[in-house]
Design brief:
Pfam families: Stress-antifung. It is found in: Secreted. Its main location: secreted. This is Gnk2-homologous domain-containing protein. The structure is a single chain. The protein has helices at residues 42-61, 87-104, 148-167, 198-209, 212-216; strands spanning 2-8, 11-17, 28-31, 63-68, 75-81, 110-114, 118-123, 136-141, 173-181, 184-192, 222-226, 229-234. The chain is of the alpha+beta class. Helix 1 packs antiparallel against helix 2 (87-104) and helix 3 packs antiparallel against helix 4. The longest helix has 20 residues, at 42-61.
Length: 243
């Protein structure tokens, strides 16, 4: 069992969530307050064009971004799949995300939604290349480890190592398994959206890792998930392969 906490305009909420999540179950979403649009109006039509473009772009590399429209009707968007997700599953997740965020943020000119396998974000404001600190939430395992101080240190060391590795890779993604005891392994994963520079990717990840004790002190698993980067660690396998 997991709990998660999100931070948005200083709002904090606690919600229970099963740790086994499928594409059909969003982790969470945010809707912006930057204005509304009309059904089948110019913005709505531009959104449909945008997501169609994202669908076609995302399978080869797991990332896509685009803009459609002009002036007040412009729609900017990006889609990101977890770095180990197969291309067909990636596309399916993005299609599901685009439909679901449109329902949950109905007639809203901005929104972001996360699944275990992908995320999708759109806005009438240009956000490419800027670290998104506003849309962020925490998830953590309800169970604690026996030695929190030592475990936190080992987890931070692994995630920091992955931050450096991801920010210098073309996919802005890294995952790794490390033995932390005689019969225990620590699984870690980090990722950034590829509209960031390498420097901003590392800063985003390092800032998120800096919240490790706040979100997940001594917990057997946890995540900090944001609109520009995320990390996750567990004591069980949750990605297809390390790199």
């Amino acid at each position: 069992m997991y709990f998660f906490r999100f931070t948005f305009l200083h709002l904090i909420s606690f919600i229970s969530l099963l740790h086994i999540v499928t594409c059909a179950d969003p982790l969470f979403h945010f809707c912006s307050n930057k204005g509304n649009y009309k059904n089948n109006g110019p913005f709505d039509n531009n959104y449909k064009i945008l997501v169609s473009s994202l669908f076609s772009q995302v399978p080869p590399t797991g990332f896509a971004l685009d803009s459609t429209g002009q002036g007040e009707e412009v729609v900017n968007g990006l889609a990101l799949c977890r770095g180990d997700i197969p291309s067909n599953d990636c596309k399916s997740c993005v299609i599901e995300a685009s439909d679901e965020v449109r329902k949950r943020c109905e007639y809203n000119k901005g929104g972001v939604i996360w699944y275990d396998s992908c995320m999708l974000k759109y806005s009438n404001e240009k956000f490419f290349g800027t670290i998104d600190y506003g849309n962020r939430f925490y998830m953590w395992n309800l169970n604690n480890v026996s030695d929190a101080e030592s475990f936190n240190m080992k987890t931070k060391e692994l995630l920091s190592k992955l931050s450096a590795k991801a920010s210098s890779s073309s996919k802005f993604y890294a995952a790794q398994v490390e033995e932390i005891g005689e019969a225990e392994k620590l699984f870690g994963l980090v990722q950034c959206t590829r509209d960031l520079t390498k420097e901003k990717c590392k800063k985003c990840l390092d800032d998120a890792i800096g919240e490790l004790n706040t979100c997940c002190d001594g917990r057997r698993g946890g995540r900090v998930v944001g609109g520009s980067c995320n990390f996750r660690y567990e004591l069980y396998p949750f990605f297809y392969s390390a790199n």
